[in-house]
Amino acid sequence: MMGVLQGFTLILGIIGAGYLAALCGVVKGEQRLVLNRVAFYVATPALLFAVLHDSDPGVLLSPVILVTSLAAVLSAAIYVTASRLWFRRDAASTTLGAAGAGYVNSNNLGLPVAVYILGDAAYVAPLMLVQLVVFAPVILAILEATRGNQRGAVVALGRAASNPIIIASLAGFAVALLGSPVPELVLGPIEMLGSAAIPMVLLSFGISLRGQRALERGTGRAAVFAASGIKVLGMPLIAWLLARAGGLDPHETFVATIIAALPTAQNVFNYAATYQRAELMVRDTVFLTTFASLPVIAGIAWLLSA
Asked: What angle do CA 289, 168, 228 make, to 5 degrees?
């Protein structure tokens, strides 16, 4: 559990630094969006290429990744159904809420969880790959389609495909698939840029907390509670049921359930802030799931590793 605690401490520390920067007037108002834009268009693509260029594409077909991916899709579908029945939202907000319910923090929290609880960081990389290569293009295509243009989903999907995050992910995956070495002269600057991505997103997240309390009235609390509940409780339960039904062995079941319990990824907040859609709702979902997931992960680890 020490690795998980270190991961949470790291995240909360940088968020706190962002809040203090706003409190002291270092960054004011919409200035924080500069961090989101640099992270979205420059640093995050560099990070994703650096992570994916030496990954193993074959792990995409492992039983664990199939279970966790299906659990994410079902969790998102449950959120969409709940949204249509109880708190109707526009397409962008519904998409981001569904992403909050199923898109896990597979990087800065997933890696310490994989290393210190699951015993192998390779368990998280496949889900990261699926989220970047499959889930992210769908999310971005819908967000592009809601920007006010009437050119259709096909054009919006084309615009999403030209997004630097998607291009970098596909390029990294292609390099891994081909087994092509990347010269250190090229990889060095990419890795340095990529190392700035997560801190910038977390700093912007902390800055956004200044002057606005979490879960205020009128910020979509019903949607936040629904997405958070599905993410922290529903998705691990779905993954556990799918693993049992699919005949996974106890260790694979344990791995799939733990991964599904990870909180909502900061990437979802970055998408919301960049496209300026449902930002407060997504911010509160990330905030709530980050805190709530720790006892849930600890409980799953205790129950399934016994």
From this structure: 10
Q: What is the DSSP letter of 121?
A: G
- The one-character DSSP state at 40 is I
Average pLDDT across the chain, whole number? 82
Spell out the alpha helix ranges (H) of the chain: 2-23, 33-38, 44-52, 63-86, 91-102, 110-113, 125-130, 136-145, 153-161, 164-178, 184-194, 197-208, 221-229, 235-245, 250-260, 266-275, 279-304
**Which residue has 């997933």 as its token pair?**
110
Return the structure tokens found at 281: 């709702």
CATH class of domain segment(s) 2-7+32-208+216-304 = mainly alpha
> Which of 290, 52, 279, 284 lies closest to 143 in space, CA to CA?
279
Query: Is pTM, for the whole model, over 0.90?
Result: no
Nearest Cα to 40, choosing from 252, 275, 258? Answer: 275
Q: In the beta sheet, which residues pair with residue 142?
A: none
CA–CA separation, 293 and 287 (whole Å): 10
Q: pLDDT tens digits for 4-22? A: 666 667 778 888 898 899 8
Nearest to 53 by CA among 132, 141, 163, 137: 132
Q: pLDDT tens, 90-149?
A: 889 999 999 999 999 876 566 556 655 666 656 776 777 788 778 888 888 888 787 765
* CA separation for the pair 86, 35 (Å, rounded): 35
What are the sequence ranges of the domains in the chain?
A: 2-7+32-208+216-304
Q: Are 275 and 156 in contact (CB under 8 A)?
A: no
Pair of tokens at residue 263: 């909180």
Q: What is the mean pLDDT of residues 266-291?
A: 87
How many Å separate Cα 297 from the centre of its chain?
Answer: 17
